[in-house]
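Work Package 3 (structural annotation) set out to generate three-dimensional models for the target panel prioritized at the project kickoff. During this period the team completed the workflow that converts sequence records into discrete structure tokens, so that structures can be stored uniformly alongside our sequence database. As a representative example, we reproduce one entry of 502 residues exactly as it appears in the project archive.
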Amino acid sequence: MIRYLGDPDAKTDDHFRDHFVNSEEAKAQLNSDFRITFGTKGSGKTALRRALTDIHADRYAATYVIDLDDLEFGQLYGQIQHLRGTSGTHEAQLATTIWRNVIATYCIESALQVDSMSSDIKERISAFLDGKGYMEAPTANFRLLHHIDIIFQLVAELGNAASSRSFAGPSGLTPSQLSALIRFPTFVELPLLIKEVSTIISGGGKKVCVCIDGLDSIVAQPNQLRTYLFAGLINAAYKLFMDSDLSQGFALKLFLPEEFASEARRVIWDQDKIHRFSELLCWTPKEFKALIYKRLFPLSKSKSNDFLNIWHEHFPDRVHNDPHKIEEPSLDYFLRHTLYRPRQVLFHLQEVFEKWEAQNSTWRVDKTFIPKIVARTNWVLSQQVIDSLQHTCPYLESLMKSFGGYECIMTTKCVTDRIRKFTPYHHTTDVKHCLHELIAWGFFGVGDAQSIDHGFLFSYSDPHAVNHFPHDDVLLAISPMFTEFCGTKPSSHGPVIPRTMQ
């Protein structure tokens, strides 16, 4: 029977409580009432959210999840563009107002789950939501579209009520109509309801935790469809948290994709303020050991409390790295052939188990077997990452494959020259931005000038990797996970080692 490590997806994992790792970020979530966690797909965002709503639910008066997986970005963007065309109001401002109103309705809806809420107030909440049509919109996508329809209706009503068109501005709208487009709250009843509900919740000593999750699918949308929707969501959540009435009774947690966060940040007005509530989700080797231990323990014969004892039941102490003629720690070998995403690590391990047991009867995997399987799974994982970023950077695949035949460690100038040749980016500013994104996404690690003695800084293990632009003579390394996909050669400098493994 093939050793099975369990479901790698936290959303569907039936043994989530047994598998969850209480990381530093998980602890930080419990100590903050407003937090924006950025992470790549498979990095553990949903696991953090599920820990709040499942494992730590007793810390809150109630927990509520706004699942944005079903958003139809083209339809939403088209409606927002229509509003912009009508009024001349900027997309980011419109998106912020729409999100702010919709999230506020979800907050008061979540209060229906609070035991201390009286039946009278619950009836008033339901009456408000029903009366405005929100309860007929079962998903976030429908609720956003419904609120946009409400704005259109309100603008039309205000236009009909206007006594004279002489008050209209260049857009053809009256001041009251323009105000309605960006007004929060859209309905005057909402602030009083929020204040009353929050006061009751806070009186019980616990807040309602509202989590926003499920936006990974936005990464696959064209840039123009998503930047303002994404930036508007962040702006809206921050403004709601800064509302003393709402934050009195509610904690807001956002779990958002990191892949294009930088482009959204450029249109966020309060980025300097929002930054202190933001965190990039990064895993440490220690946390990976905890993750793997929890998955291997049920398969263990010794049931040891020591990670290495469990690990060595299944894997050798060292792996033979033939290109560099060295022996390296087996766990490090697996980790450095990922972008430090738990799902990628589990994929490597599961594939090794399946291929080994299909050909061998011995329990422990041989040290010469692992690199062959990792090389195959590298290609699969690389293609998944490339595909997820295709809309963000349509030239990414051709650019990365242009390094075929090159050594995997090269100078910054070599990389920027390839960017100029294989992408439309020729101006220095555009080239720098492209390289910054490649580093932020984990394709390249930053080293020192002419030396690999201190290893390479990769964004997935150390966010400081993206803090500065490297000079032309600084060495960059392609992440080992992309070796087979790019067709690069082993470097004469030696293997690519993340600085966290030094």
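Residues 93 and 255 are 22 Å apart (CA to CA).
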